[in-house]
Design goal:
The protein is α/β, with parallel strands linked by helices. It contains 6 helices and 6 strands; from the N terminus they run E-E-E-H-E-H-H-E-H-H-H-E.
Length: 145
């Protein structure tokens, strides 16, 4: 009997979570060993999001994968902007998010701890399989306006 195949990855992932009181977002970059860098706090405006993506490109490279909850991808521009830039974006479904919150006792911790936990999800092959990859925009279709 063989176990699940293990895919070796190299690179960085970046977890995104709401800052306290929803005033902004917190990003935590994690390397392939799961080591977290200091948190990055940024606003929720389109200019702030583009600035974060440019910062990630400059500091950890263009292949940094973003990991964020489904609901955040629907309410903020970051997932769409990152996909437009060609970045891989992983969406965490509510059930996985809830399980991580309960198991890691994240409900009472700082937002950066939750962002780091999200960034680590794709590092585990079994958890990565539970995430949904945001499809990049269709470049073949021309805009009407």
């Amino acid at each position: 009997m063989t176990g699940p195949s293990i895919v070796l990855r190299a690179g960085f992932t970046c977890g995104i979570w709401l800052a306290r009181r929803g005033r902004g977002l917190v990003a935590v970059v994690v390397d392939e060993d799961g080591e977290a860098q200091p948190p990055l706090n940024f606003g929720r405006t389109p200019d702030d999001v583009w600035a974060l993506l440019a910062h990630l490109d400059a500091t950890v490279g263009c292949d940094c994968e973003l990991v964020l909850p489904d609901w955040l991808a629907k309410t903020d521009d970051i997932a769409c902007f990152a996909a437009e830039r060609g970045a891989d974006v992983w969406l965490v479904p509510p059930a996985i998010l809830e399980a991580v919150h309960v198991v890691a006792h994240l409900a009472t911790g700082p937002p950066a701890r939750t962002a780091a936990a999200l960034a680590r999800l794709p590092l585990a092959p079994l958890l990565r399989a539970q995430l949904r990859r945001l499809s990049p925009p269709n470049r073949k279709q021309l805009p009407l306006f």
